[in-house]
Each structure stands twice: as structure tokens, then as C-alpha cells.
Design brief:
By secondary structure, this protein is mainly beta. It has one domain: Neuraminidase (6 Propeller). 4% of the residues lie in helices and 45% in strands. The chain is built from two helices and 27 strands. The protein has helices at 7-16, 357-360; strands at 3-4, 25-27, 32-38, 47-55, 61-68, 77-83, 94-97, 103-111, 117-124, 132-139, 150-153, 158-160, 165-166, 172-178, 192-199, 204-207, 217-224, 230-236, 247-253, 264-269, 276-279, 285-290, 299-304, 313-318, 325-331, 337-343, 348-354. A six-stranded mixed beta sheet has the order 1-2-3-27-26-25, covered by helices on one side. Strands 12, 13, 14, 15 and 16 form a five-stranded antiparallel beta sheet that branches. A hairpin with a 4-residue loop joins strand 26 and strand 27. It is globular. The relative contact order is 0.14.
């Protein structure tokens, strides 16, 4: 069953009406389809947060998220849901990674150009994310079975969140960050972003230079504009207190992603929350963020057609009295944009599908 409603008006019902929260939603007028992937019907793991999505070579879609009783609970695990090509329903979640008596977090699922499916995720060993390390697994059969886990970084406080990209020279660039501080309500000023770089020929990992800013930064999202020029948009660091100075940050590299400039504020608001940033096949850039300095609503999509100079095309695709957090976006082989985020106090995963034209040609 589907309803044809404007998503920004639907948002309050997703929170206040359990029945409505179980119904996929389609906005026919604006050509954006929003569906509810999973929610509280899985009571053993009510908490569900950062979701990532990838399209497999066979056309299946895979979503990975971590869930449990709470963000900082030790019963969390990484779960996966699949929508097989041609089907309309997502599968029930299955456990992809679960370390006994240790918290999982922030999974990133991605199929590389050689067909390997990578799963990167976080293990937290103490009371805050500053004790985390990054682990990984690979699958050679489209995410049906997985290898044993491996440690990507032993440095305490290392985390991942954003989608990897393939550089023009064939290397992979995986967004990462180093979170410091012992306060769950703020990150310390030396929290910083960087990237893991993988050479698929040598099968070796290395690290890029780190991105600094006065109040710290985390969760970068990167695109490559040319062989040497890369840019990333980044979540601001700090606390969650009311502010009128909360902006998304931006950094750039002029040497192919090896070193990065200091992160500077942009025009885009940021409530200390993750953003998504992707390059479309036509070269246009798409930034997805919460257009608010203090709340994770609305969720806004902005498009640049001039290589990051301006973003004249903007649209709020979700909003109202709810939160829409940690967007993660990909463009599939049919050129559709697929976006996942969490809502309903991190108990529900939403999946939106739309064409770029739903943003660039949208008007009231």
C-alpha cells in the first residue's frame, strides 16, 4: 500500500502515528518516492542508526546499519537488509558483524569495481567513541557470506561513516575521522577528518593527511573534480548547545587527496550532524544536509552544476516535527538517486528514490 503525499507534511505522522509509520510513502507531484525500510517491528534491536546503501553488480540493493538497545549498549551489532532486483520488499535484517561484549557502530557497505563487497564498521571498546577502532570484512558472493574481520586501524578514536570513491588512478578513498574527548555530548577540538587510501593492485592501505579546524570536524564526504583536485564537505565538531554559528565545513586537496586544507565554514547550516556529498555521472554535485543549525530537520538536497561554485537548486525533501539524520546517498546504474537516513528517534530507516530533476526542476 502506498500513499501519495508531500514528505515534508508527512513527517509528523511518522513520529506520532504508528500505523502511518508502517506505510511506504510516495510523492507523485515532486517525483520523490520515500519508503520505510524497517522500524520497531524488530524489538530485539530497537535502536537503528547510521545506515549505508550500495547497489550490487546484479542489481540488488544492500543496506547496512547498526542496531541494539541503545547507541552505547554492548548488545549492538551490524545488520544488513537486501532488496533483490525486481522485488518490492526488503528482507528481514541479518547480522553481518557482532563482536561479543563490544559495541559495533557506523557500518559502510560498498561494492568495488572488481566485484568485492566491502563492509567497514566500528568497534567501541570503552564508554565513548574515542575508544573505537575500524574493522572490515569482504564478501566475494554479493554479500551472501563474509570473511573473518580484519583491523583497518588500531588507533583509538578511529571511525568511518561516508561512502568510498574510486579515484581516477584506480585507488579507493574511504572517508574516516579521529574522534577525541570523553564527553558524549561534544567532541574535542582536535577531532579531525582524513581518508584511508587503498591500492587494489598492491592490496595495501595508507592514510592521507588530516583535516584540522578550530572546533574540530568529523565525517567527511568527498568527490574528485580532477586528477589533482578533490573537495569534501564535513560535519562540524563541538557540542549540541543552541548556536547561530553552526555551519558545514569544507576542505580541498590539490595533490590527488594526499594533503588537505584547513576546514572552513560554508554557507550550509549544520546542527552537528552528518552530511552526504556525491558526484553524479553528469558531473553535477549533490549535497544532502540538515538545513538547520540546531535540529536535524529538514533534510535538504542541493545541486551544483558548476563544479561546486554555486548551489542554486535546493529542495527540502523531508521535514516537520521529527529528525532525519545521517543521510547516505548513491547513484545507481539507472541514474536514480538512492538516499537512506534514520528517523523516529533512531528507530526507523527511510529510503528515498528520485531523479536529479526532482531537485533541479522542482518548483512550488
Amino acid at each position: 500500500m502506498r500513499l501519495w503525499l508531500f514528505p515534508i507534511l508527512l513527517a509528523p505522522f511518522l513520529q506520532t502515528c504508528p500505523l502511518m509509520a508502517q506505510i511506504p510513502v510516495m510523492n507523485w507531484r515532486q517525483n520523490i518516492e520515500v519508503e520505510r525500510v524497517i522500524g520497531l517491528e524488530y524489538p530485539d534491536a530497537p535502536y537503528k542508526h547510521p545506515a549505508s546503501i550500495t547497489e550490487l553488480d546484479n542489481g540488488d540493493l544492500l543496506i547496512a546499519y547498526y542496531g541494539g538497545s541503545d547507541e552505547y549498549a554492548t548488545d549492538t551489532a551490524v545488520y544488513g537488509c537486501r532488496k533483490r532486483k525486481g522485488e518490492t520488499q526488503w528482507s528481514a535484517p541479518v547480522v553481518l558483524a557482532d563482536t561479543p561484549d563490544c559495541s559495533e557502530g557506523n557500518p559502510v557497505i560498498w561494492q568495488g569495481p572488481d566485484g568485492l563487497v566491502w563492509l567497514f564498521y566500528v568497534n567501541r571498546y570503552g564508554s565513548t567513541w574515542s575508544t573505537s577502532r575500524v574493522k572490515g570484512k569482504i564478501s566475494k558472493d554479493g554479500g551472501e557470506t563474509w570473511s573473518d574481520s580484519f583491523i583497518l586501524s588500531f588507533e583509538a578514536g578511529t571511525m568511518v561513516k561516508g561512502a568510498p570513491i574510486v579515484l581516477e588512478n584506480g585507488d579507493y578513498l574511504l572517508p574516516a575521522y579521529h574522534e577525541t574527548g570523553e564527553d558524549t555530548e561534544r567532541t574535542a577540538e582536535d577531532t579531525c577528518s582524513y581518508f584511508f587510501r587503498y591500492n587494489p593492485t598492491a592490496k595495501t592501505w595508507s592514510e592521507t593527511g588530516r583535516i584540522r579546524s578550530p572546533e574540530g570536524n568529523l565525517q567527511p564526504e568527498v568527490v574528485q573534480l580532477s586528477a589533482d583536485h578533490l573537495i569534501c564537505y564535513i560535519r562540524r565538531g563541538g557540542d549540541f548547545l543552541p548556536t547561530d554559528k553552526g555551519y558545514t565545513l569544507r576542505s580541498e586537496s590539490r595533490d590527488g587527496g594526499q594533503t588537505w586544507s584547513e576546514a572552513k565554514p560554508t554557507e550550509f547550516k549544520n546542527p552537528n550532524a552528518a552530511v552526504a556529498f556525491i558526484k553524479l555521472r553528469n558531473g553535477h554535485l549533490m549535497l544532502i544536509y540538515n538545513d538547520n543549525m540546531n535540529e536535524r530537520t529538514p533534510l535538504t538536497v542541493a545541486v551544483s552544476t558548476d563544479n561546486d561554485k554555486t548551489y542554486p537548486h535546493r529542495r527540502n525533501i523531508l521535514g516537520g516535527d521529527n529528525t532525519f539524520a545521517y543521510p547516505y546517498a548513491i547513484q545507481t546504474k539507472d541514474d536514480k538517486i538512492h538516499l537512506v537516513c534514520t528517523t523516529n528517534k533512531r528507530t526507523t530507516i527511510l529510503h528515498a528514490v528520485f531523479d536529479e530533476s526532482a531537485i533541479t526542476e522542482w518548483s512550488w
